[in-house]
Each structure stands twice: as structure tokens, then as C-alpha cells.
Amino acid sequence: VLKVLSHIDSILRSPRAPPLIYRRSKGPVQNCIKENGQECGFEHLPLTIEMWADQLMALKDLHGSLRKLSLELVPWHTADPQDNRESLRVEDLQFLVDAILEEIENKEKSSQTPSLPTLFAIVSHFQKLFDVNSLNGVYPRMNEVYTKLGEMTNAMRNLHELLELDSSAPPTVVVDTVGKLCDIINENVTEQVQQLLGTQDIHSIINKLEEHECFFPPFQALIQDLLCLLGISNVDDILPTVRNLK
């Protein structure tokens, strides 16, 4: 018995033993004397072994709780290599904890992946925005929208450069600038017409146009008759041909 107790005591005193497990008794020393006359120090062993037994029972309870949690989080990990064993080890619990942690990490990584209801809502919203009646028409309409968007982007970029606008200028500014240019061009055209016709008011322009409308058809008919009579086809040849006839 003393040999067994000495072996247990040496295990408790070893560096591998947890520091909180070994506690030397402070009570009266039992009548157990070693050969050298010193106390054997085995009086603390029952309490320590009792504590170990409690810890082993708690280990089983902890394993059962982890198994329940594992079945909730990772139900496909049904094969537990420790199910058929009577004794449990810390490694067995660590195996369950690692499986649960791995599942949690995978869920965090995949949390950015949209669910099927979310994807269905996105497709339905696209169909409503771009008037697509069937799922088969979604991809062609996407390509069409992408093409049109590219064309519009290129056109807006070119207009920004031509109008010397900042690239951040919104489309409304581009439209306003184009409208102002059109107004300027229209004003210049009006001034040029007024200078050409020698008048400054709209009524005079109308009168000039009416005079031209009355004069031009008879003049055109006269020129056509001269060309036909002289046997020529070019207006510039009329005067030289008439001089030759003189």
C-alpha cells in the first residue's frame, strides 16, 4: 500500500501535475513514518483523488453539453469517435470545440453571400425596372442596358471635353450648356440673315422673301429657255455665246 501511495504522491508532486491540484494538508499528520523517520505526507491524497473523480464526472457532463451544441451547429458531424468509449479525454472535447469553431468561421465567411430570397428579390426588381416579362429575357436586357450605359457614358465624356466642363459636372449642367450654345448659334444665324437681306426687322425679311419668290421662278424659266435656244448647258456660257452671235 505504501508503494502505491508513494507512486500516487510522486505523480501529484511531478511538474506535469496542475499547480492547484497538490495541496499539502495542514492538519495533524498520520502515523505513517518512512524509513528515514520523516512523515510520509499521504494525508492529502484522498481529497485530491476525490477532486479528480469530480472533475472526471464533470468532464462527461461537459462532453454531453458539447455534443448537443455540436448537433445544433454541425449536425452532419454525427460520427463521434468517443461515443463508444467509457472514458473521456480533453482531446475529445477539443475535437468538438474545433468543429464548432470551424463552422462558426465558415458562417462568418459566407455571411456576405446573399440568400436565395434576396437573389429572387433582386431579379424581380430588375424585371420591374426594365420591363422584362420572363427570366429568359433578363440576360439580354442586362446586355442591352450595359451597352446603352456604355454609349451614354462615352457621349457624356465627349461632351464634357468639347464643352470644356469638369468631368464631375452632372448631366443637367451639360444640357444647360448645350442649350446656351444653341441659343447663341440661333442668334448668329438671325444676324447673318439680316445682314444678307439688308434688313433688321422680321417684316422686312418677309417682304424680301416674297420678292425673291415672285422674281426667281420667271428668271429661272428665262435662263432655261436661253440655255435650250443657244444649245448650251452651262449658265456661264450664255454671255460668250451671245457675244459670238453679234
UniProtKB/TrEMBL annotation:
<keyword id="KW-0963">Cytoplasm</keyword>
<dbReference type="GO" id="GO:0060271">
    <property type="term" value="P:cilium assembly"/>
</dbReference>
<protein>
    <recommendedName>
        <fullName>Centrosomal protein of 70 kDa</fullName>
    </recommendedName>
</protein>
<comment type="subunit">
    <text>Directly interacts with tubulin-gamma; this interaction determines centrosomal localization.</text>
</comment>
<keyword id="KW-0802">TPR repeat</keyword>
<keyword id="KW-0175">Coiled coil</keyword>
<dbReference type="GO" id="GO:0043015">
    <property type="term" value="F:gamma-tubulin binding"/>
</dbReference>
<dbReference type="GO" id="GO:0005813">
    <property type="term" value="C:centrosome"/>
</dbReference>
<dbReference type="GO" id="GO:0070507">
    <property type="term" value="P:regulation of microtubule cytoskeleton organization"/>
</dbReference>
<keyword id="KW-0206">Cytoskeleton</keyword>
<comment type="function">
    <text>Plays a role in the organization of both preexisting and nascent microtubules in interphase cells. During mitosis, required for the organization and orientation of the mitotic spindle.</text>
</comment>
<dbReference type="InterPro" id="IPR037692">
    <property type="entry name" value="CEP70"/>
</dbReference>
